[in-house]
Amino acid sequence: MSAENRWAAFAAEDAAIAEAARGLGLWNQVCLHAQQAAGKSLKAFLAERHRPIPMARHLAELLALCAEADQNLSRFEDRCYALDKYLIPLTYPDAVPSSQSASLPTEKDALEALGILKELREALRVG
Asked: Residues 63-80: pLDDT tens digits?
């Protein structure tokens, strides 16, 4: 299996988990797995173009590398930042002060994250 296919397969799994979490009302998990699926989709795009795959986890950084190959992708910069805001607090619960628990993702946030993921994957032509 090629590097591109491996990244795309893992991205598809994260997207599927995000959708499954949506059905369970697990908004944190929807947002986290949408962010993860987006990152792996961006890495699949880089692999397809035989570009180095950085260890980066932040979407904005990965998007900048992808935009070097396709300038049209730069339109996703704000949306990547929107997904990136979930990475640390939803990966490390102790990174969120308890007073901020009310600011954890809502259903609206989860649906927005899934929408961003879908648009990005369509633009990347991944999965």
From this structure: 999 999 999 999 999 999
Determine how many CB atoms are found less than 10 A away from the CB of residue 18.
24
Residue among 87, 90, 80, 89 at smallest CA distance from 119: 80
What CATH number is given to the structural domain containing 83?
A: 1.20.120.330
Tell me how many domains the chain contains: 1
- Tokens 């797995």 label which residue? 33
Q: Are 112 and 31 in contact (CB under 8 A)?
A: no
Q: Please give the residue range of the domain that contains residue 113.
A: 3-124
Residue for token pair 């809502």:
106
Helix (H) or strand (E) holding 106: none
